[in-house]
Amino acid sequence: MTFDLIVVGASLGGLHALEAIFAALPSDFIVPLAVVQHRHRDSDDTLRSVLQRAARLPIYEAEDKQPIEPGAIYLAPADYHLLVERGSFALSTEGPVNHARPSIDVLFESAAAAYEARLLGVVLTGASADGAQGLALIKARGGCTVVQDPASAECRVMPEAAIAATTVDHVVPLIEIVPLLTKLCQSSWKVGL
User: Pick the catalytic residue: 38, 81, 170, 188?
Assistant: First the structure.
């Protein structure tokens, strides 16, 4: 299967999980990633800066109408929902969903509508059920679903909610997520997006 986009959701404990994933992603990883990490609405650019120190791929705070480019990581800005349109991002200030803005469900649901079976969704550690319904929609639209093994999560609530919401394709410990993504996305390398 060829994937055009990977969407990732994290909350409590997500900084460490994202650091581990971004540090392990190879510099030639071509499939772009769109990430929601729950954070305070007044957060500055610190999250991006901290994660960039760990990553080999460039990390950007997504901007409205920004094209989605291969080999890049895009973070939802503080206090904005990140939505995916075919080939670009949109930002929204609509009300919080699951008590969060940015909301993982909003990202996942919009990406599932845009990319269907060419989407890969990942739910990491967190203390809410945000992302569970979105991951179920990704699965229903033919996309691939990955959840961090709750036993390896700093907070089990979010991964357990995702597992309860749908039949997840892969449940793996944090350390195995990048090898799995690399294996799943190898055909995308050959296609060159």
Answer: 38
